[in-house]
UniProtKB/TrEMBL annotation:
EC code(s) of this entry: 2.3.1.9
Keywords assigned by UniProt, alphabetized: Acyltransferase, Transferase
Pfam families tied to this protein: Thiolase_C, Thiolase_N
Active site: C89, H338, C368
Membrane spanning stretches: none
An MF annotation (GO) of this entry: acetyl-CoA C-acetyltransferase activity
Family: Belongs to the thiolase-like superfamily. Thiolase family.
InterPro entries: Thiolase, Thiolase-like, Thiolase_AS, Thiolase_C, Thiolase_CS, Thiolase_N
Thiolase N-terminal domain sequence ranges: 5-251
UniProt-listed PROSITE patterns: THIOLASE_2, THIOLASE_3
Record's protein name: Acetyl-CoA C-acetyltransferase
Signal peptide: none
Top-level EC class: transferase
């Protein structure tokens, strides 16, 4: 059976809103990580079969198939195609899945998979906002079928996160303790150089800009996002700019081009859950992935679950029974940022490097996504 391998994984430093990457065109951000992959692995870009990139809110500089424009902006051959994927926050993880599936089906040998997002230039939900300005319905408004099934109440990530905190009885203090830990772990990881092998500096941007000095006292002073709620900005992911990419290869490509794989794709899948809760799908996605892979959560050495909001991670830990010491060990999106379309392969780069640093075998990546879906990927270090 053909295997799909990760040969290398890179990312830009993650810029905060209006930070060091704010003025960079999204195509140039994508081109930067693509060029880094080519240079680090020594592949001939002419041998790449496809470029699959994740991106959310594909308007402005992110419109027009950013996978294709990023590849061409890198100066690489025109015969190599590209396709852009939108699975919301899991878009580049899905890009990785599509690329690996092409290799596993024996229809491709070399795939560049990744993602890009400049949230400073193009704010979250920009596509919906522009649509409303032109008088169009939102994805959840105006649909008779949707309204009959789910009603006409607000659908939002903030509402979903609050519902999760309430259902799993997560106190504001618990959420803030997790958020503080995220910052502390991220700062420690930066100080120890744990991200250096995955980050390719972009000009003066050399390190992640998100981690900050904070405390439980500072967090406790913030207003909640929803009146009477438990969540504040301190327990939510940061608005960010960045790009990331991985090179995927088949057995044949590994031999033909003398590549050195770093990990094997052990399992990939996606599942869905209640779209009103929206952010709970990593729970069934993880359960399904472990069952299909014939593993238990105790077999997993390291876990990356995107910190869209602290309750997403804490509810997942409760349901799955995971050891918190294995989860987001270098901090998460609360501290390091969440550049939507780039987050999946960004987290994969971090997971891969940390498995190598610690000598772990299996790593799990899962991300909650708008619409109530989630991807789950299990890799095995080689």
């Amino acid at each position: 059976m053909t295997e799909a391998y990760i040969v290398d994984a890179v990312r830009t430093p993650i810029g905060k809103k209006k930070g060091g990457l704010a003025d960079v065109h999204p195509a140039d951000l994508g081109a930067h990580v693509i060029k880094a992959l080519v240079e680090r692995t020594g592949i001939d870009p002419a041998d790449v079969d496809d470029v699959v990139f994740g991106c959310v809110d594909a308007i402005g500089g992110q419109a027009g198939n950013i996978a294709r424009t990023a590849w061409l902006a890198a100066g690489y051959p025109q015969h190599v195609p590209g396709v852009t994927v939108d699975r919301q926050c899991g878009s580049s993880q899905q890009a990785l899945h599509f690329g690996a599936q092409a290799i596993l089906s024996d229809t491709a040998d070399l795939i560049v998979a990744g993602g890009v997002q400049n949230m400073t230039q193009i704010p979250i939900s920009a596509a919906m906002i522009v649509g409303q300005q032109y008088g169009f319905d939102t994805p959840f408004g105006g649909s008779k079928g949707w309204t009959e099934r789910y009603g006409s109440d607000e659908v939002s990530q903030f509402k979903g996160a609050e519902m999760i905190a309430e259902k799993w009885d997560l106190s504001r203090e618990e959420l803030e303790k997790w958020a503080l830990q995220s910052h502390e772990r991220a700062k420690a990881a930066i100080a120890e150089g744990r991200f250096e092998n995955e980050i390719v500096p972009f000009g003066d941007a050399t390190v992640d800009e998100g981690p900050r000095e904070t405390s439980l006292e500072k967090m406790a002073s913030l207003q909640t996002l929803v009146e009477g709620g438990r969540l504040t900005a301190a327990v939510a992911s940061q608005i960010s700019d960045g790009a990331s990419a991985v090179l995927l290869a088949s057995d044949e490509a590994v031999k033909k081009y003398d590549l050195k794989p770093r990990a094997r794709i052990h399992h990939l899948s996606a599942r869905g859950d209640d779209p009103i809760f929206m952010l709970t799908a990593p729970i069934p996605a993880t359960q399904y992935a472990l069952e299909k892979a014939g593993l238990t959560i105790d077999d997993i050495d390291l876990i990356e679950i995107n910190e869209a909001f602290a309750p997403v991670v804490l509810a997942w830990i409760k349901e799955i029974g995971a050891d918190p010491s294995k989860v987001n060990v270098n901090g998460g999106a609360i501290a390091l940022g969440h550049p939507l379309g780039a987050t999946g392969t960004k987290l994969m780069a971090t997971l891969l490097n940390e498995l190598e640093r610690t000598g772990g075998r299996y790593g799990l990546l899962t991300i909650c996504e708008g619409g109530g879906t989630a991807n789950a990927t299990i890799i095995e270090r080689v």
